[in-house]
DNA sequence: CTGAAAGCGCTTACAG
DNA sequence: CTGAAAGCGCTTACAG
């Protein structure tokens, strides 16, 4: 790589000190009361030499890297890819750059990523925390490293977060299924304790309870994140083949719905006649399904934007208190719920 | 943020110089012949103080940031999100971190991103170049900044790239349509001059020519990237309503297919009976379409991995000559082509 | 075997 | 109005 031109090169060419050059190029001539003529000479030389400041050096001096670390479960997942994009855009508006990493819902990977990014001096984090990563979050707190959680958070830990109201969204979705005439409603969720999943289960359960539809056996099936394909087949079969079988299934995430629909197709159940379906989050796939899915539309763009705003506020110390934001989702009703 | 512990802090606590600490923590005691006892003391103190090296300072000194800049059209696009993921994984294996940005196929944005990332001292770039960004690529060349292009490249410009054989893939796809009995085949592509699109058009044209199916009017329709929804509707209608109408459409990308299928649905054409369809790249959506799409399966994982490997070779100077890699795609035949 | 010193590219308080 | 100097956190050639 070619040797880059530095302040020193400009200073030499102009016959002044690097200090002068620094003042001029950062538009601080006034406080330093630099002469107009020399300032314009410096600027010209900088331009001619195609000077590019070394942001690493700047960061080292200032202690601010203007970089945000983004940790999601999987950047190739549509949901997180969309969030990443809004975070990128919002960060850029504020002159921040984003470094990302995928944790695969694995706390060790997540910890690895946090370490690496701390060493790279990110100014703060936006994290969709994995299960069992409480200590990592507490570590960030203890180090006073700014961060905001998205999608999930830990109720027991003081922190900023931006999430959607999963309880409300889930309640509404299930209520919709009830209103469209379904009385045996199963739910496919993940086998984990993350708050967003728990809240979705709670919304489901409460909606059933409020309508006297709770059965003696739980109809919530839990799938292992690391074994989705097999687990989901087993669980859906149980829901469909038990007596009495369910006539509707509520999927807790779009990935689950995607896998679940394949099983349902394989079993030749027709949606919504044999079985009604509702799920969380949109997906291109759901638009093209023969029976377009009714889904909970989470406000991804707002989540991303709000997370960046809060984080930058915290980084710049405008607001040191943790802030919690909960945004409502909207139920988009289509054919799959038999409306 | 808490004050971080530095080499100096450890040096003070151990009563030695920072130089010693640096040698020990970087496992270079041998060349510096550091005493075993003092080395272990230093290590212990570092551990107790939870020392985290400042990679910014390291980079400034070494001139290597161990960071890769990734520029794609849109990180929220499934195709690029998948590539980003494989690049992330491969980079991490080599102890590199990736900073990303979306150009939105806009050369100004792309130039912006390149500047910012250069200022942040990335060691190299992986870029899916936009139309009219030739000068940017030449600039990187002139500065000897390592980079490798993916998905597209500029035939006139010397550079490393990893792409798929778009001509072959396209030829095969269209040949398949011909073999399944279609004789009026339209193509929906983008209105641009990027090589991957041109090659796809060339493959299409050649396949028709080899089978004496070229019509006097071009059946290649070009859609403006910034106005997909409207443009595609107009163009598909032209293909379908002209005399004689087409009986098959080949979509040059998955985004085009996604939009196109919506139009076809709206017009109530049944696939594959009224119209056969083949497209580039997979998509969850295509699996769930009532008539699953026949598509060109590009080897995204290999493209990502290979790009990282070549880039790192170039960064570490193992291989200075540009390398061009072309990988074959595979046609996945399903129902939409009427096989 | 160990340390003082220079330097990576910047900024900024200080002195003139 | 301008410059010398210190320092951000690190590495490494050099001197002892």
Low-confidence stretches of chain A: none
Strand adjacency order, main sheet of chain A: 2-1-3-4-5-11
Estimate the global geometry of chain A from the Cα principal axes: elongated
Whole-number mean pLDDT of chain A = 93
At the first level of CATH, the class of the largest domain in chain A is Alpha Beta
Strand content of chain A: 15-25%
- Radius of gyration of chain A, CA atoms, in whole angstroms: 26 Å
How many structural domains can be distinguished in the coordinates of chain A?
Answer: 3
The beta-strand count of chain A equals 12
Determine the CATH topology of the largest domain in chain A.
Rossmann fold
Counting copies of identical and different chains, the oligomeric state is homodimer
Taking the alpha carbons of the first and last residues of chain A, their distance comes to 63 Å
Largest inter-chain contact set:
A-B, 52 and 52 residues
CATH superfamily of the largest domain in chain A: Response regulator
CATH architecture label name of the largest domain in chain A: 3-Layer(aba) Sandwich
Q: Name the helix and strand elements of chain A from N-terminus to C-terminus, one letter apiece.
A: HHHHHEHEHEHEEHEHEHEHEHEHEE
- Which bin fits the share of residues in helices of chain A? 40-55%
Largest sheet of chain A: 6 strands, parallel
Structural class of the secondary elements of chain A? alpha/beta
